[in-house]
Amino acid sequence: MTTVVVLQPGYLPWLGFFDQMRRADVFVYYDDVAFDKHGWRNRNRIKSPQGPVWLTVPVLHRARFGQALDEVEIDNRRPWARKHVATIRQLYARAPYLDRYLPELEELLSRSWHGLVELDIAVAQLLAGWLGLQRRLYRASTLGIPGKRSQRLLDICRHFRADRYLSGNAAKAYLDTATFQAAGITVAWQDYAHPVYPQQHGAFEPYLSVLDLLLNVGGESLDVIASSHAAAAGAP
Q1: Partner residues linked to 44 by β-bridges
Q2: DSSP 96
Q3: How far apart are CA 194 and CA 182, in angstroms?
Q4: Mean pLDDT, range 41-60, rounded to an integer
Q5: 197 backbone φψ class: left, alpha, beta (φ>0; ψ -120 to 50)
Q6: What are phi and psi of 85, to 5 degrees?
Q7: Interval 92-116: pLDDT, tens
Q8: Separation of alpha carbons 124 and 10, rounded Å
């Protein structure tokens, strides 16, 4: 069975992003859809003693309404990378795996980045490597498959001769599952149950960047990601 996952790239993604990658045979970065200014493409959260705080990559958006995600440019007039690294170092000073991971992340973030998508994918692949995930990876923008939403997702699955399409629950609002079934492709919903793991700074806070998990748990992080997956999702 070949399972395809199609997800928009994001900055320092959460655990559920890597749960879908874990369960995929083919993982496609949905990199040419419309940029959602207040979404997760250029920001994510880590934990402080006062609760979650945002790490945001500034982007150029003046007079660029409706731009595609792969057209978004980073605003490098601000020292965002240095600030992110300093914030992580401060907030996770006592995390057991800070010294293991932060130097490599710092080197990556400190490179000269122009496009947001390129940064997001590079960071996601670094994190995936730390988790021990290696998958067949593609960018939707390179596949030459036109269309919108449900039909395009179906055509991407057909392109890879998929038997199953795994999707997050938000797609239930628009995905035409009947057309997938007619094409012989099963639609599976992620239904991810967020696991609890040791954290810094008090009571557990879910839905943070996977970086929080890695800095606290290290090499066992992928087991944590998989541990609380709902049985109803039919995970392999």
Answers
A1: 55
A2: T
A3: 32
A4: 97
A5: beta
A6: -65, -45
A7: 999 999 999 999 999 999 999 999 9
A8: 8
* Residue 7 DSSP label: E
Give dist(CA 29, CA 126) in Å, integer.
Answer: 15
pLDDT of 63 strictly over 70: no
Token code pair at residue 215 = 């800095």
Provide the whole-model pTM: 0.93
Asked if 165 and 180 touch (Cβ cutoff 8 Å), the reply is: yes
* Secondary structure, 3-state, 78-89: CCHHHHHHHHHH
Q: Tokens standing for 26? A: 């083919």
Task: Tell me how far apart the alpha carbons of residues 25 and 136 are, in angstroms, rounded to a whole number.
Answer: 6
Phi, psi torsion values for 227, nearest 5 degrees: -70, -35
Confidence of residue 38 (pLDDT cuts 50, 70, 90): confident
Instruction: Check: CB of residue 46 under 8 Å from CB of residue 160.
Output: no
